[in-house]
Design a protein that fits this description.
The chain has 67 residues and is mostly helical. It has 2 helices and no strands.
């Protein structure tokens, strides 16, 4: 009688893990710059620049300096 050999699935599990990791990396990479597409950053930058200009104008009026 011949003994039944068990199929070794070790390399199949390793290949599945590699494929799952690659898919996960690509999914995360595609979402990496989603936050840049909305207008929050542009709005924040315009507010910062407006505050800088306001500060310069206030400083020039109070001290009499010209930049």
């Amino acid at each position: 009688m011949a003994e039944a050999q068990e199929k070794d699935n070790f390399w199949l599990y390793i290949a599945g893990l590699i494929v799952a990791t690659v898919i996960l990396v690509f999914m995360l990479k595609s979402r990496e710059t989603e936050h840049l597409q909305d207008g929050v950053i542009a709005q924040s930058q315009s507010e910062v620049f407006a505050n800088i200009e306001k500060r310069k104008a206030t400083r020039n009026v109070t001290t009499g300096q010209n930049d």
